[in-house]
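Hi F.,

I've been meaning to write this up properly since the lab meeting, where we talked about keeping a consistent format for the predictions we share between groups. The idea is simple: the sequence comes first, exactly as it goes in, then the structure tokens exactly as they come out, then a line or two of notes. No screenshots and no reformatting. I'm using this chain as the first example so we have something concrete to point to.
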Amino acid sequence: MLKRPVYVTMKIAMQNSRLNQLPELHDPISVVLNAVVNGLAEEKVSVGTFMGGLQRRSFGGILIVLALLGMVPGVSFFAGLVMIVPAIQMMIGLRAPAMPRFVRARELRVDQLRLLLRNITPRLQHLERYVRPRWTVLTDAPMPNIAGLMILVLALVIMVPIPFSNFLPAFAVVLIALGLLERDGIALVIGLVCALLALIVGVFAVMTVLAGVDAVFAKYL
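Output, unedited:
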């Protein structure tokens, strides 16, 4: 019988060890996020490597991460741009996200991720206390497809470079993602309602900015 080379055996053992350290599927997403981030040893991590730890959570975990990043000034445009990909994939009915290579290669600073998690983990845990499986029929098809369409529009709002305009749409994405993750129809509906409010506020903010720009041009030209 052929024996594996020593380095192959060691590599397989290391991979199995890492898999065993991953959080369980039933763990709250806050536990999963902290386990993934605290397990990073480098100063920077690629988006692909980071999201690899969330793959078992399908779209929900990745959308929550992108929504949280969308609340960070300077990163919100990139977060909204990337969010378009899983949103479209949800719309067409894919079961798991698949990011393009240029997105997976983008690097994030680990210290910023840890700081972000320290700030949002208590709030996320507070939300998780109220999220549980209920009204599960509202999370069945075609609701994930409809949620994908709504998240696509919210991603465009998050990308708009207007101060404080990205918090409400990002929060709506978190609620929608939690609702899908935990099969909580009530959380999903509340998230969709917040999404509609975010769209109204976003349109109003854009119209206000455009009106201000038009007034400036009319005054000086």
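Notes:
The chain is about 70% helix and 5% strand.
The chain has one domain: 28-220.

If this format works for you, I'll send the rest the same way.

G.
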